[in-house]
Each structure stands twice: as C-alpha cells, then as structure tokens.
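Format is chain and fold; as here:
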Amino acid sequence: MSNESLSQFASFTAIKQFIDIEQKHRNLEWLKQALAMAIEVELSTLPPYLCAWWSIIDPNTEAANIIKSIILEEMLHMGLVCNMLTAIGGTPRITIPKYPGPLPGNINPSLKVYLSGLTKDYLKNIFLEIEKPEKPIEVREIQPLKFAFFLVKDAPVQTYPTIGAFYDEILSTFKYLNPQINEKNQLIAKHISLYKIEKIDDVEKAITEIKQQGD
C-alpha cells in the first residue's frame, strides 16, 4: 500500500469521497478511514439528544423515555463501529464535535446542528433532519411533539448520499476485502447490547441493526 493512498483516504472529509472510490480501488486503509468517519457521524448525534433529554424535568415522561432509548441506540451504533474498526487493526479516535455546525461527512450539508433543550422546533428542524430516511418524507404535526410521516411521491432526489448508503458501501467493502478479524481490544456493554465483531456475518448484523434503528 502506498503512502499516497494512505494520505488520500485520511484526507477525505465527506462520505461521498469514500463512495466515489470504485470497489476495486478500495483497500484496508479505505475501510479504516471510512469507519473512522462513521464514528464521527455517530458521535455527533449524541450531544443534541443528550441536551434535549437533560432539559426534560420529569424523566418518567414518554418523551424522556423515547429520547433516552434513542441515546442508547446511538451509543450502541458508535460502539459497534468502534468494534468494527478495532477488529481490522484500527484504533478508534474521538474527535470532539463542534456546535453549531454541520454533521461530519457533509451529510445533509444544509443542516446546521445546534444544542438546545427539547422544543417542537428542535424536534422538527434538528432531530427529524438527523434521522432523515433515504426516501423523502413529508412531516405533518398532529399533536405537540408527535408527528405523522408520509412518503412523498415524485419528491426531488437528494443530491447527497445518506449515512445508510455509506454503511452499505462499508459492508460491501468488508465482503470484498474479507479482512482478517481480531477480537482483541473490542468492547462489550450489556446495558446497550454492545457485542464483539468476530466474523463478517457480525459486521452485516451490526450494519443492518444500525440502519434499521436509524430509519
């Protein structure tokens, strides 16, 4: 592997740059750097949810329980990606997110994420944008803090790749490269159902879980 390819992938700042690399030109370093980017994305979603959760006075309300469950899911997602990276010889590194600002990887580039307590506007303008599915949706308010979702026919196609598409590329590259997987230094955490990545099937299981919970 050349130093040029190492620096090329390490310099990528958008998931589109990773996706645009043809499969035949992807190597273990591509996979490590793509997973490092995914870790940044997963971490960046935690502070907004945490701030909203902390702002709820009664922790036993439905809203508090829903947001807490999302926080635990996001922690699981980040943990799984860290284990994937560790499994192929990489070392997860934590980059502290900056707010207000865009999501890492140039995901939904028009979105500027900021930290706030829970409000209807924050739910609609930040949370629903962070969790935006791959198919366009229309959001209609029914009750305070409750929304209905409807698929939009003939909606304009997004001009940027989604995190789901990025995970699809990571999975396909795992299968293409079939790298040696090592359980050493991976973490488990029962309270968030975090498990080790021991084989390629575990990678597929983890990515499927991340995508399903993110939709």
